[in-house]
Design goal:
10 helices, binds zinc ion
Length: 260
């Protein structure tokens, strides 16, 4: 049985096809999924979805790329974190990939938002789901400054270097690999995956984006997470069953509220 540790089932392209997706998940032995919240405005939709199905859970947070949305306070996030089936804070983090005309200094609002999430994670005891793109030094730096909290978390959709992975592992975080691991051009990332101990690895789809080979370019769904597991198994020279079991166990250890 496989777990998708990061997907966006509330996004319209997936929400519209939920019965088909759930059937495909069952056929592919994907028994659980964590649905990630990206705005406060979206939370009610994500939460209703996970309350409707036993094998879905969700996070509460505002994605660093989302501008012109309600800015969360620590209190806002704590109120959502107290709701049933909310098992994580995020996705949060830093993303300097789309700076456009701006400089890194102009992104103070993003760093401030990230700090709010870290404080909410510490206060709630829930793990953080961290997104980092073109911003790894600041992502780690702010985490260290704030104190990463007791509950740790995961660097999701990991595409950084082994050095960044080492630093995240040293802070007690897990590393989650997505369909990018299967891309032909991702040899460097496969080397990083070889380095990360299996007991600290998670797998995810980040669907509807980033469908793994052989579905690259198509709409992704949690039903495709076994392709990430197969690639990780090949890298680690293990049976896919061993990777499925380890990543499921890691998911339960990190998101302990998913275990009843
Ligand atoms: Zn992300
Ligand atoms: Zn995401």
């Amino acid at each position: 049985m496989y777990v998708d540790s990061h997907c966006h089932l509330s996004f319209p392209e997936l929400a519209e096809k939920l019965p088909e997706i759930r059937a495909a998940m069952a056929a592919a032995d994907v028994d659980r999924a964590l649905c990630i919240c990206t705005t406060l405005e979206e939370f009610e939709r994500v939460h209703a979805l996970v309350l409707a199905y036993d094998n879905f859970w969700c996070s509460a947070g505002v994605h660093p790329d989302n501008e012109d949305v309600r800015e969360p306070s620590v209190e806002d996030l704590l109120a959502l974190a107290a709701q049933p089936k909310v098992v994580a804070i995020g996705e949060t983090g830093l993303d300097y990939y789309r700076l456009g005309e701006r400089s890194v200094a102009d992104m103070e609002w993003q760093r401030q938002r990230y700090r709010v999430h870290i404080r909410a994670a510490r206060a709630s005891g829930l793990p953080l789901v961290i997104h980092t793109r073109s911003a790894s030094a600041d992502t780690l730096g702010v985490l260290r400054e704030e104190g990463e909290g007791r509950a740790g978390g995961v660097f999701h959709c990991f595409t950084e270097t082994a050095e960044v992975a080492r630093a995240a592992l040293d802070l007690g975080f897990y590393i989650s690999f997505s369909g990018i691991l299967t891309f032909k051009t991702a040899a460097d990332l496969r080397a990083v995956a070889a380095f990360v101990p299996l007991d600290r690895c998670l797998i995810e789809t980040d669907s509807p984006y980033l469908a793994p080979v052989p579905y690259r370019g198509k709409v992704n769904s949690p039903a495709y997470v076994p392709w990430v597991a197969r690639q990780l198994a090949e890298i680690k020279k293990l049976d896919v069953e061993a990777v499925a079991a380890a990543t499921s166990r890691n998911f339960e250890l990190l998101f302990s509220r998913t275990v009843t």
